[in-house]
Amino acid sequence: MRASIILIHLIVILLILPYVSHASTIDLDNLGIDASRSEIIIVSHDQNVLNDAIDMGYAGAFDSVQAAIDHAFSGTTIFIDSGTYEPFVIGGIQSGLTITGLNPLIESAAGWGFVAQIYDSIDITLDSLKIAHSDTASYFGTMLYISCSSEITVTNCEFYGPGEAGIQLLSSEDITITGNRLHDITYTGIKINMWQVDSTGYPYLVSDLDIRGNYFYDIPLAIEGYTADTDSLDYFRNNYMYDPDEGPVDAEPFDLHDIDPTLLLALTTIVSHDPEVIAAAEELGVNKVYANLREAVEYAEPAESIVVCPGVYQSFDIPSYVFGIEILGYDAEVVSSNSLEPVIEILNTSQIWLEGLNVYHAVDGVCQGGCIHICGSRQVTITGCDIHGSGVFGIWIDMSADIDITNNLIHDCTYAGLQLENADWFCSSDIWRINRILVEGNYFYRNAINLEDRWGDEWQVVSFRKNNYFEEPEWIN
């Protein structure tokens, strides 16, 4: 008799246990959403939650996010229970969709591809999601990829894990990214591309961006790429470069007033990620202010000085239509994760001055791209820079003339610290050979070789002074 009573008790416990755990995961009576149940789809791994959702008149109930998206209609809100879920895709002219929940984790173990993707869609909101790569060896994946879409809002989400970007944008407009955390990503928080073109060959640019109130930390770059918005500060503002749980790191702030006042009088452009520096620049009446170094160079005018404030910035090119400028770095790093391309390329232009930049590739292993490539150009000076990393060349000079390389650190390059060559078909046709190259006062160390020439007769065209050094300077440490 006693055994029968115990058995009955056990059966009762097993029957009610799912409902006890169900009550602690999600409150279907109070989701905090301003929508009727007929407009809400529930996603959960708890079958009891799904059964109750159907009984209570919700629009649908599924155990995967993708299934809910496939059954959604315009005006639907998908509410996801806590837990870990498979990647999803929103596409095919979907519109009027909100995905939110109890901070569910959307995770991919693949070392490439997208965890979440939105394409060809209008009016999509992602709110309070965690989107991550779990493959620790991944360098090519993106957490959220948005392409050919408009009226997209991403808010209160968290993006992390190894990969190329937290959020990648392509050929889209009216994008709002606010109040998110982007951290522990291999390369950049937000990457902006413009690969697609219309029938005339004109690229579809990303435009009408609003990127504010986000936290970027433990990440090389906050943002990189081209947009149709000419001033980065119109869309990249009031963001923070620290973990909100730990607060800002105490550091002596960069002060624009520390810049040589004679330079400041002629200054036209400031590049900085720091809102306080940006505010100070505006108070000083600086004409142009950017958060993106690539855009500052893209829109530079002759005789313009670009002061790059402390921070890490994306790689950039100086094309033929940009000339007569100087770029002055103050503890500024210029970095690329593309192992096939230069970090800085100076192509078919003249009168360029680079000073005080830390230039390198942020990749493991061997690169095929150099750190700085000067091609078909005249009157270029590189001085006081730290040029290093896994770049195959530190500085590669091709079919250029009147080039001064002075007082730089050039080190840890896969092959040559300095390469001189007459070979590149992309160079300007009016310069047929290397000529008048000054190499003076530089430190070359830990390169496979320090100087290689592929045109011959180097001493007639290059002044490689005796006061270059071939070991790491003692003052480095």
Mind explaining what this structure looks like?
With 477 residues, the chain is mainly beta. It folds into 2 domains: 82-237; 256-476, Pectate Lyase C-like, CATH 2.160.20. The chain contains 7 helices and 40 strands. Strands 22, 23, 24, 25, 27, 29, 31, 32, 34, 35, 37, 38 and 40 form a 13-stranded parallel beta sheet that branches. The protein starts with a helix and ends in a 13-residue tail after the last strand. The relative contact order is 0.05.
Give a quick precis of the structure.
The protein has 477 residues and is mainly beta. The chain has two domains: 82-237; 256-476, Pectate Lyase C-like (3 Solenoid). The protein is built from seven helices and 40 strands.
Layout of helices and strands:
Blueprint: H1 2-23, E1 40-43, H2 47-55, E2 60-62, H3 65-70, E3 76-80, E4 84-85, E5 88-90, E6 95-101, E7 105-108, E8 114-119, E9 122-127, E10 130-133, E11 142-147, E12 150-155, E13 158-160, E14 165-170, E15 173-178, E16 181-183, E17 188-193, E18 207-212, E19 215-217, E20 221-225, E21 236-237, H4 261-266, E22 269-271, H5 275-283, E23 288-290, H6 293-298, E24 305-308, E25 311-314, E26 316-318, E27 325-336, E28 344-347, E29 350-361, E30 372-375, E31 378-383, E32 386-387, E33 393-398, E34 401-406, E35 409-411, E36 416-421, E37 435-440, E38 443-445, E39 449-453, H7 458-461, E40 462-464
Parallel strand pairs: 1-2, 1-3, 3-6, 4-7, 5-8, 6-9, 7-10, 8-11, 9-12, 10-13, 11-14, 12-15, 13-16, 14-17, 15-18, 16-19, 17-20, 18-21, 22-23, 22-24, 24-27, 25-27, 26-28, 27-29, 28-30, 29-31, 29-32, 30-33, 31-34, 32-35, 33-36, 34-37, 35-38, 36-39, 37-40
